[in-house]
Amino acid sequence: MRHRTIRTIRILSGSGLALFMAGCCSMNQLQGQKFDQRTASSHLVPPPPAQVFSDGWVDTDFHNPIQAVLNIGTGIAHEIEMSRTRAKMDSAMGMVDIPAILEDETLERGAKTFGFRAVDETRDADFTFDIEIEKYGIQAKSWTSGVDFTMEVKVALIENAKHRQVWRRCFDEEIAVSSDLFGLPGAANNVITMVSLSRLTADEIADGLEKLAVRTSDRIITRLREDFSEKNR
To answer: pTM for this structure?
Structure first.
């Protein structure tokens, strides 16, 4: 009974902590804010490198030696392809700066949506978009399942004169990568798998990731607009 009580307390404590952390990541003090004819800049915290996120895909059953050998052989072949895909990702990142695109697009779309003027220096701005990317890259749950572009980013809008945040949100984006996004012939289900992705060139991967970064910035500004409207109805 005592062990059950302790376990229950731990579960509730963990749930409470998760809710607390989620609350810490969300803040909306946009009521009464005026953006029209004001200035805004952006600041990007140095981000981590892009990654290919994958789980251990080879489920080896050593009670079945023949199947185990087949699985290991398949796993080695897939790991070789995965290494090639990672190399293409590295090459693609040298062609296009995804974090910088996210930063620029967020500021530009914010300016168009709210009417403020974008400036380069934060010291000259009334507001600053503070952008912190925690991770980003390609998420693959298996070799043959659909691939997602994933990005975890925290965005805060800072009122510079008062040195305070007036809005903050965390975005955990997983966007399905489709064939048309990369300019590929449309398949029946229009889904990109790791098999398909490994056959793309670094140029094609860079082009697709650039489009995905733009889409993420659009989601950021869309959420900011919704939160602003909620507080200023």
So the answer is: 0.75
